Fold each of these.
Amino acid sequence: MSVIAQNLIWGVRRRTIVNDVSLTVAEGETLGLIGPNGSGKSSLLRLLAGLKSPGSGRVEILGQDIARVSRRALARQVAFVQQNATTDTNMSVRDVVRLGRTPHRSPLTGWTMADEAAVSTALEQVDMAGLRGQAWQTLSGGERQRVHIARALAQSPRVMFLDEPTNHLDIHHQIEILRMVRRLDLTSIVALHDLNLAAMFCDRIVVLQGGRVVACGVPAEVLTRSLLRDVFRVEAEVTPGPYPGQPHIRFMAA
Ligand SMILES: Nc1ncnc2c1ncn2[C@@H]1O[C@H](COP(=O)(O)OP(=O)(O)OP(=O)(O)O)[C@@H](O)[C@H]1O
Ligand SMILES: [Mg+2]
């Protein structure tokens, strides 16, 4: 298993936000994380990636308890694309993506061919190579999001956490980014709001409600009319999609 979470609990003051979550993700798998606003998706991703510590429970990534691994060692294996990530300083696109190489570099080695290759490939993967010299501040919202994904890819992670990576992206880039993430030879855990995209690109889906896992399985098992009604409070028709195992959801106005 690539990622194993056991009985994760995390809260603030008296409120429990992530409530006894256990899950496993196989090597190479793309796991979708869905749930209403405030259900705990971002909080859970941050616990899984080691960006915050659980009140109780544990996370193992590639066989190691992340509480016992140094930040730097973890960053060589795990990348995180934040929801609404920003970059403060006035850097070029290339420089932002170069930051992804930081965990792999030591003070003794300079910028290597491998670093350069990782940055170039990452920029191409998100269709941003043409804008590599442009200043970060001048990018559109979708371009910024793609640069942040490139930065994570340049990190050459084995496990990638993405918090709403399709935020701000046009439909072409939403599909391209998710297709690429799925095809890459890495394990990914992706929080998504678009349930049809989750059905198209995730091997399995975990559904959070009020900090708890209320469903987990392949898209066709999880995305049922009754779950959409109970968890997301919407009426919808669920029909088989164009590809096997990918249901198509049609939301109803009334
Ligand atoms: N540090 C914190 N202090 C207080 N409350 C918090 C903190 N972090 C998260 N919360 C609360 O926990 C709940 C879950 O937040 P989280 O960001 O994990 O939800 P989410 O599922 O990612 O939502 P969204 O779909 O809107 O991104 C929210 O109600 C949020 O207000
Ligand atoms: Mg969130």
Amino acid sequence: MSFSADYRDARVRASPNCGPRRNAMRPDMLLLHYTGMTSGEEAEARLCHPQSDVSCHYIVHEDGAVLQMVPEAMRAWHAGDSCWEGERDINSRSIGIEIVNGGHPANLPPYPVRQIDAVIALCRDLVERHNIRPNHVLGHSDVAPGRKIDPGEHFPWKTLAGAGIGLYDDDRGTVGPPLLGPGERGQPVEALQALLSLYGYDVAATGEYDERTRLVVESFQMHYRQGCIDGRTDRQTLDRLYRLSQKARA
Ligand SMILES: [Zn+2]
């Protein structure tokens, strides 16, 4: 299969790992990943290998080079078992971007500036062409808490938001003592869960700060409160979640 790039600055290397988007769904979400492999070439080869069953629409190399592997009209296989706003077929409603980075196995190497510049330019084009809302620019960890931890707590979400890509809340607060944490139960826990769920995370309002809740809070912190990722809820975590929820609905 060959096709011409949807993004003007991309070269094409077609992956066979794709299919039609289901239920005529159109992409309204950007899902960002890191490759978590030792090299970009290795990641590229895996995403194109007919037996790997994985792919993405775009891969962004460390030098900023962008490659398109699946046409945007098609469903690429990058999200796996995921959920956001109750929708479980994330592949059908998203565009997947793999960012070359060694990730946690390599102790979270920094993302080079020119790579992030390329990610921003690509995202800007996608957001404009597909009319994607800021709260729909997400990481793999947001839609698969406990299963996925990419693009990792060093990914510069704040820089992206400064360039108009995605939501971020940059208050001046600091990490504080936990207000809520594992093992607690009651109405405040239920309210926290409801707020997380309203924002899009897949968590039920059970009123119990269970393992699922801890993992979802951790995912939230990896994206929106990178200074401390402990799965507990302090004032700063709660304030950011509340303000982001308001911005998302604005
Ligand atoms: Zn991923």
